[in-house]
Amino acid sequence: MLWFNQEHRLQHASDGLLVTACDSDGVHRVLAIGDYHSVRPHYPDLTPTHWPGHWIAPGFVDLHIHYPQTDVIGSPAEGLLPWLTQYTFVHEAKFADAHHAHEVAEFFLDELLSHGVTTALTFATSHPASVTALFEAAQKRRLRLITGKVLQDRHSPDGVRDETEQSLIDTETLLQRWHGVDRLGYAITPRFAPSCSEAQLRGAGELAAKYPSTWIQSHVAENLDEVQWVRELFPQARSYLSVYDNFGLLRQRAVYAHCIYFDETDRTLMQRTGAAAAVSPTSNLFLGSGFFDFAAAQSSHMRHGLASDVGGGTSFSPFHTMLAAYTVGREGQTKPGLSLSPEQLWWQHTSGAAQALGLEGQVGNLLPGCEADFVVLDPQATPLLARRCAQAHNLSELLFAWIVLGDDRVIAHTVVQGQVVASKTQP
Ligand code: GUN
Ligand code: FE
Questions:
Q1: Which end of the chain, N or C, is less surrounded by CB atoms within 10 Å?
Q2: Closest listed residue to residue 276, CA positions, set 172, 206, 360, 196
Q3: Distance CA 113, CA 130 (A)
Q4: In the predicted model, is pLDDT for residue 426 greater than 70?
């Protein structure tokens, strides 16, 4: 059993017991976690489920993903901007059709859960029906999930471009309908500064101030051509990040994907405002965008956590993302190389990602009071993993073996709100 203590240190029990129960508000939460022999006597009436040889761990939290890009994975291009026009906008235009949106939403949630991801902050498309489709699918499954209608009223083709005033009306309507319903949350979602007029960014900032418990999600400083484009579009702005600041879009619960081409002033601004970076290493490697500077992020105390960024990202698997984050951390030609520990990587994809969302103590961990969303890991999932895990001398080595060799086969079961929702084998 794995979890993090209040100081973010990884804890484990080799023979553990996790006790969960449904609260009066209908949410399943953790009552107790720890060594079986110390917890068991407090709950004599329990009938425990046994998973011998397996490990229980917090469900993973994906800080940035695009559900409408499920079918875009593995589309190669000459960098971000050609990739957007050649593939992404073409696929996203299909979400004008609510039937298509519903079908992809269900498939997407199946993928998240079979990979052990129990909470995601995800883009929809500019079509309001794409948001409704995903919220309905997530509500049915009792998931904690955050999404929002993409705002993009310029530099976008017909089929995905929206209209400034209507886009803000649609955002407020969807937000009022869904934000805080069950475990769902709304994210105000300007795609990125080049695709939003000043009026649209201003409107987004006004909504963010009017509804402070909503999230904000966008992209920033991902690619050099994009950074140059923003410089031309917003010549007065000190930096790309400061464009968002100027429109009131940096605050707690604001999550910005990538954050690669930052200087110290940008990192300080992130830290000061409580905004968080969604580090998306498989996407950055696939699109050739660049390398996130983990050392600088740590020393500036800017919040950051891990994300798949599917479909720029190449995998739904948190193991693949953690491995790519390790590789990007090691990269030492464009920035100082840093060896992230397996405990740090794991934290950044669970409790650390939850902290970035302002949901620490709710998801991404299994301390008492946390919502009961967890995974059951199988260290014998493949012959190579079994062999490597058997030779691990300590917990760090075991975690590293999972990170390097793991994928969805390691996720034996995913449990959401006390129910097994995905299984490789019979629970
Ligand atoms: N910047 C603007 N839109 C996108 C997107 O869909 N994916 C990525 N990776 N970057 C973006
Ligand atoms: Fe993205």
A1: C
A2: 360
A3: 20
A4: no
Ligand that comes closest to the CA of residue 65: 2
Q: What angle do CA 307, 115, 87 make, to 5 degrees?
A: 55
DSSP annotation string for 9-66:
-EEE-SSEEEEEEE-TTS-EEEEEEEEHHHHGGG-TT--PPP-TT-EEEEPEEEEEEE
pLDDT in tens, 163-222: 999 999 999 999 999 999 999 999 999 999 999 999 999 999 999 999 999 999 999 999
Residue 84 tokens read as 């957007």
Residue 248: burial class (beta carbons within 10 Å; 0-12, 13-18, 19+): middle
Q: Which ligand is nearest to the CA of 83?
A: 1
238-268 residue pLDDT tens: 999 999 999 999 999 999 999 999 999 999 9
DSSP 94: G
Query: Does 189 sit in the ligand 1 pocket, CB within 6 Å?
Result: no
The strand pairing partners of 19, in sequence order, are 32
Identify whether the C-beta of residue 215 lies closer than 8 Å to the C-beta of residue 254: yes
Query: At residue 118, does pLDDT exceed 70?
Result: yes
Q: How far is the CA of 146 from the centre of ligand 2 (A)?
A: 14
The residues facing 423 across adjacent strands are: 413
Give kind and range of the element (H or E) at residue 345.
helix 342-348
Q: Tell me, what amino acid is at 253?
A: R
Q: What is the pLDDT of residue 425?
A: 77
Whether 151 is in the pocket of ligand 1, judged by its Cβ within 6 Å, is no
Q: Quote the ligand 2 centre to 352 CA distance (angstroms).
A: 19
What residues have CB less than 8 Å from 86, skipping those under 6 apart?
A: 75, 77
What is the average pLDDT across 80-88? 98
